[in-house]
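Reagents: none. Just compute today. YdcF family protein.
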Amino acid sequence: MSYLIFNKNHTKTKKVKFLTVSLTYLFFCPAFSNYLISKWEPIPDTNIPNAKIGIVLTGGIIREEFSTKNQIYLGDHADRIYQALRLYRAHKISKIIISGGDAEIQIDENKLLENDGARDFLIESGVKPEDIYQEKKSRNTRENALYTAELLKKEHLVGDLALITSAFHMRRATACFNKVNLNTTPVCAAFLGRKSKTGILDFIPKSLALRNLDYVINEWIGIASYKLMGYL
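Predicted 3D structure written out:
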């Protein structure tokens, strides 16, 4: 903005203005956002092979700010826990690991943190408590993999693994688990991209397009930083 105000070269100023407006439009354009997201997210696989253990990564499963021990409110990425429940009911998995810690300290005893909320949701939905394991130390995807590996060893859990997380996050999650020698079958949830044909309304700017694209951009940054740190 300062460049546009103080630069006296009108030709360059016009070019910068045009570029700024064009990029702003693209980031808010559902057609552009959906195209990039659909190329990034894995293709949905409805033929999931049987596995013994399902690993669900937390992050947006439960609305912690509203949920209490008497009432659970699901978050934007609650499809993760639903996909685990669906596989359990279909007898494709027999054990479920909920992986992910909670950054904030639980001061209110009635407040329900995400990992516990996900567990309560599964139990309310018919999953046996003894079939649920909680990994509550991890704060990021790399630690999800590290501490899940520790839990599997500690609890003597053996069998094929299904990794359940949001589609936009699956590439980084799979790479992290591979790094700790855990081979998993990816089960994508909470797809952001749409399979429907692009229509005229998809070229009208919407804030939702930017929000969805932001998830993917954050993943690109996360993968780049993880590679630099040797996590992948």
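The domain at 53-189 is CATH 3.40.50.620 (Rossmann fold).
Action item: order primers for follow-up constructs.
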